[in-house]
Amino acid sequence: MQARLSNDKIISVLMLPWLAHGHISPYLELAKRLAHRNLHVYFCSTPANLVSVKPKFLSTHHQNSVYTTNIEFIEIHLPELPGLPSHLHTTNGLPPHLMPTLKQAFDMSASPNFLGLLEDLGPDLVIYDFIQPWAPLVASQKNIPAVEFLSISASMMSFCFHLVRNSMSDEKFPFPAIYLRGHEVGKFVKLLESSANGVKDKERVEQCSDRSVSVVLLRTSREIEDKYIEYVSVLHGNDKKIVPVGLLVDDDDHDHDHDDDDQVMKWLKRKEGAEPVVFVSFGSEYFLSRDEIREVAKGLELSGVGFIWVIRFAAGSDPKTEMEEALPEGYLKRIEDKGLVLEGWAPQRAILKSQGVKGFVSHCGWSSVLESMRYGVPIIAMPMNLDQPINARLVEEIGVGVEVRRDGIGGRIRGEELGEVIRKVVVEESGERVREKAVEMREEMRRNGDEEMDLVVKELVKLCRKENLQSN
After folding, report:
1. Which domains does the chain have, with CATH numbers?
2. Residues carrying an active site annotation
3. Mind telling me which residue stretches traverse the membrane in this protein (predicted)?
């Protein structure tokens, strides 16, 4: 289908993700796929985010004229509230206590800032995220259709919506593989009940989906989550089409931003064929406590396999001092032939694509889960917060990973359990089916990516043409 309106005008889309890297990244991947199919994309975020996103994108894709011509980066300016200067208009490095303030500032950008962008750019469609229910309302003022794109799993979305829609009843979630453990319930309730600017997050989520015109886009695949996609549709009263967009994993070999990346890949190359290696990372926005660091360190050492472990510390701390004080005494010396411990960042996709990496000790952020599936790497699941527990249950249900069980009510990590699960998934015969399933999933994902995106574009073009005819 041609991505044009009846008057032969190329369809233009304004995309507005939430101000977190974990949302901006899949939105940008979707933008690239839309641009490749000849839609024009206005990619909108704060200067605090675009200052890093735009140069990297342009340097990576400067030879791809489709991307550089069809994707424009547009700044949206937020008001500077007390304690929230413009360089903090991003979740990257944002102190947790300022998150409600950032949401409030984002809300305040609706008018005149966002409205002004729509008036100046005149897009045919707006694609917005889960936290700004004002975006579709402002778009409707200009007779522009708005569609929600959620970069979370269908299992997470259906679980949340089930809880919200059935808050006054005891009706159980219909899929027993997806549930919360005792130590996770409090955090999850707090997540739904947290509020900013007088609006609870669960209300934002519900309003954003309810206001999406005709369709809701989900970053998933029917091969992974077909029954959960269908249940999301049921929870919406079957009045919206739930359209999976696929995994949106960037396969370009441009995952190297730091000078020491070559050192990491050379280390991996030396390990290839000698012993299996696991990659260990808990995402960009979770900082392990000292007790958690010690238990993870113990588990990696007990596993007996090689490892690359990325540890992150909160902004303002001294990473070298923190690492020395958190790791067991003499640890780095003991594991120098087995492991590589890095502070801050590592080229995750490049590492997962390496033939020597046989497992991923992951917090189960949705992007990490999808990247692991895309490259056929089994998951050792260690969820920490947010949607991660639900994603970890899904990983086990699909069969591409095994979750590390926690201690009792408090959910404390035990190094011994981590070591056992790593050995099972990576080395032992009992984990052979998990390893096979991960490879099967990789092949399935490779076969179906373009088909899903073609259906997405078909739905969006149909929606834009319908709105264009009604307005003429």
Report:
1. 12-251+449-471 (3.40.50.2000), 259-443 (3.40.50.2000)
2. 23, 129
3. none
